[in-house]
Amino acid sequence: MSELYSDPADWYATLPTAFVSACMLLTDAEDRVLLVKPNYRPGWNFPGGIVEEGEAPHDGAMREVAEELGVSVKAGELLVVHWIPAEGDRPRALINFMFDGGVLDDPARIRPQVEELDEVAFLPWETAAPLLPAHIAPRLAAGRLARGNQRPVYLPGGLPGTGG
């Protein structure tokens, strides 16, 4: 190997890394958004979670929805890519992918994972927004906008339109 080039393993070890999560935007026939209330952290969230090693984000979103809600939902179009810088106890940036889960036509099929969830609810968009933690809340409006415009939204730093 030339002295100009690093060993690939050494080079990759110098690159920044990020945590990856994926979620789904699901609504019901009344256009209410589905949120879940985890029992292991404050606030509500979208169904989803951390993407496993070697797992594609859309597969992670489908797996997490199946685990959390007991329903099989196909990940539709990518709605939001949300980058959040490292902060507090989280030593790396977080990249979240939100996919369109569509409309759940039979909400009675939902079987919440009681080991992780205290509550699952379809809520009006305006009611859902204040229940989400500040770093997650921008995904709600961005997901709705992306779904309506049929075009993904990029959220750098979590605040739409701020660039950071």
TrEMBL record:
Which InterPro entries does the UniProt record give?
A: Nudix_hydrolase, NUDIX_hydrolase-like_dom_sf, NUDIX_hydrolase_CS, NUDIX_hydrolase_dom
* Gene3D superfamilies the UniProt entry points to: Nucleoside Triphosphate Pyrophosphohydrolase
Keywords, A to Z, come to: Hydrolase, Magnesium
Pfam families, sorted: NUDIX (PF00293)
CDD domains reported for this sequence? NUDIX_Hydrolase (cd18876)
Give the signal sequence positions: none
The prosthetic group or cofactor this protein requires is: Mg(2+)
The highest taxon in the source lineage is Bacteria
* A molecular function GO annotation: hydrolase activity
Q: Where is the Nudix hydrolase domain?
A: 16-145
Say which family it is in. Answer: Belongs to the Nudix hydrolase family.
The identity of this protein, by name, is NUDIX hydrolase
